[in-house]
Amino acid sequence: MYTYSHPRPIMAADSIVFTLKDGAVQIVLIRRGHEPYEGCYALPGGFVNEYEPLDVAAARELREETGLTGIPMCQWRCFGDPGRDPRGWTVSVVYIAVIDHRAHPLQYGDDAVAADWYPIAAMPPLAFDHDGIVRYALDWLRINADRNEFMTTYWPSSFGAGETSAFRDCLEIASQALGQ
After folding, report:
1. For the packed helices 130-144 and 161-177, what is the interaxial angle rounded to 10 degrees?
2. Looking at the DSSP assignment, which residues form a beta bridge with residue 126?
3. What is the pLDDT of residues 104-138, one digit of tens each?
4. What is the CATH architecture of 10-177?
5. Is 19 helix (H, G, I), strand (E, B) or coil?
């Protein structure tokens, strides 16, 4: 097998899982159990294993850190600023999901010491560059939530018209609260 001599980044897969809970758009965050950023909040995610498909890595990390399984996730965007992770040059492929939290209880594990839902408008500071990623994802979801492909593929089937409308309204409120 031929290998290149140029440097390669570390690959990671992270997930942003949205829900409508207590009248607000919320996301699942984990509390990190290891350095870097031990004790800080972050998006669920981690390193991609050698030869592991990206979607498999994202689903594995989400399951290991939050207990969430069977979640349809949209591969959304890559982030690769060389300074985003103190462990080295890391490129993260980020996935987005919208779920009904009532059908998916959280159970933290692996290197997460906690996992819970947090309103976007009042989320704690996040590790790495995750604050910016969440803000960008919120804006993207606000614009794209109505698109047919996203709605038919990634929208929770348990969300009726009222919940879908409330979710959209709450996206606008969260976006305004973050100054977007």
Report:
1. 140
2. 41
3. 999 999 999 999 999 999 999 999 999 999 999 99
4. Alpha-Beta Complex (3.90)
5. strand
φ, ψ of residue 166 to 5 degrees: the values are -65, -40
This model's pTM is above 0.70: yes
Other CB atoms within a 10 A radius of the CB of residue 178 amount to 15
Residue-wise burial string across 96-107, b where 16 or more C-beta atoms lie within 10 A, e elsewhere: bbbbebeebebe
Strand 112-119, strand 24-32: pairing = antiparallel
Give me the half-sphere count of Cα atoms (radius 13 Å) on the Cβ side of residue 117.
20
Alpha carbon 113 to chain centroid distance?
A: 17
Question: Which regions of the chain are under pLDDT 50?
Answer: none
